[in-house]
Amino acid sequence: MIELLNVSKVFGEERAVDGISLTVASGELCVLVGTSGCGKSTTLRMINRLIEHSGGQILIDGHQIRSFNAQVLRRRIGYAIQSTGLFPHWTVARNIGLVPRLLKWAPARVEARVTELMELLGLEPALFADRMPAQLSGGQAQRVGVARALAADPDILLMDEPFGALDPITRETLQDELLRLQSRLRKTIVFVTHDMDEALKLADRIVVMQRGRIVQQGSPQALLRDPADDFVESLLGGPDRGLKQAALTPVSALMQAQDQDLPMGSAASPSVRVDDSLRLALSLMLWHRRERLTVIDHTGRPIGTLSLHDLLGAPQ
Ligand SMILES: Nc1ncnc2c1ncn2[C@@H]1O[C@H](COP(=O)(O)OP(=O)(O)OP(=O)(O)O)[C@@H](O)[C@H]1O
Question: Which residues are in the CBS domain (predicted)?
């Protein structure tokens, strides 16, 4: 668990972070979001003491971070950044094994861990272990950066715009992989982005910052339902909010199950999977000009229907 209690950071005359309080529970994925210069990266970097806080307290599992040696603390916390920070003259394998080597793991254990992580991140070891960072695409380099952050199996992961420089498709793939990894590893993650769609997709909890302060925090659904002010509402996309909310809700939330003896779509009627989003369902209705879709399970078996009427009746 990470706790920030009334934390500030002053650079010269500027209060980059101005008295923020925040608790990130174990296993939670917390996303800090806000416009450029609002203090997101500074907040993140205070947690692993790359930047020392000027006021307040930061605790990890109940202990003040200042009670730890800064280097020891940093080796306990994974850190992935947009520019990857890979050493250009080291191979991929050597880059990933950095922290375990610093922790003096036996070479065979480091090697096994590097191979395990490369497989976990979809980087075939035989193909990539001996490559240099310059021989990687942006997406592959980001995977290496994430693998390196996970190398010593830290409980806490700090991620600063890790997918920021990627094309939308690669970015989405890596977001999906992060969610898949997180469902398995349950790390405590603080993730910084200025992209609200990324925040809505990834976060258990979103923390919106503005000029060094927290203006709102809550689940993606809670923010969409009830933005605290015009700033949060505009970050959330203003009138696009309805679609963003639909993107977060699965078809299963509103479908009418078949066993309720409701009229099914015809065999030729367009179908949507039960775990697809309501946004996709709406898009299919618009595309096919139909007010009703057949809902199928992952085997393709029809299990219910979803109508436009059901969609419009969705609770806010
Ligand atoms: N080392 C530093 N020295 C002086 N001022 C700094 C330093 N680091 C950050 N700042 C200032 O602190 C403020 C917050 O910066 P920070 O990098 O935390 O913002 P951010 O929300 O992460 O922005 P971005 O999305 O553009 O990265 C900015 O005004 C920045 O200029």
Answer: 264-316
* Complete DSSP assignment for 220-259: HHHHHHS-SSHHHHHHTTGGGHHHHHHHHSBGGGTPEEGG
Tokens of 233: 């509402």
Q: Which atom of ligand 1 is nearest to the CA of 42?
A: 18
Quick: pLDDT tens for 90-149.
999 999 999 999 889 999 999 999 999 898 888 999 999 999 999 998 888 988 998 898
Q: Which residues of 108-132 are buried (b: 16+ CB within 10 A; e: fewer)?
A: eebbebbeebbebbebebeebbeee
Among residues of the chain, what percentage have pLDDT more than 90? 61
- Report CA dihedral (52, 55, 57, 60) to the nearest 10 degrees: -20
Pocket lining for ligand 1, CB < 6 angstroms: 11, 14, 16, 34, 36-42, 194
**Could you identify the atom of ligand 1 that is nearest to the CA of residue 194?**
25
Q: Which amino acid is at 66?
A: R
Determine which helix (DSSP H) or strand (DSSP E) holds 79, and give its type and residue range: strand 77-81
Structural domains for the chain? 2-245 (3.40.50.300), 249-312 (3.10.580.10)
Q: For 74-89, what is each residue's pLDDT tens digit?
A: 888 999 888 778 999 9
- The ipTM is 0.94
Confidence at residue 121, expressed as pLDDT on a 0 to 100 scale: 83
Q: Tell me the CA–centroid distance for residue 59 and ligand 1, in Å.
A: 22
The residue whose C-alpha atom lies closest to atom 8 belonging to ligand 1 is 42
Distance 55 CA to ligand 1 centre (A): 17
- Asked whether the predicted pLDDT for residue 53 surpasses 60, the reply is yes
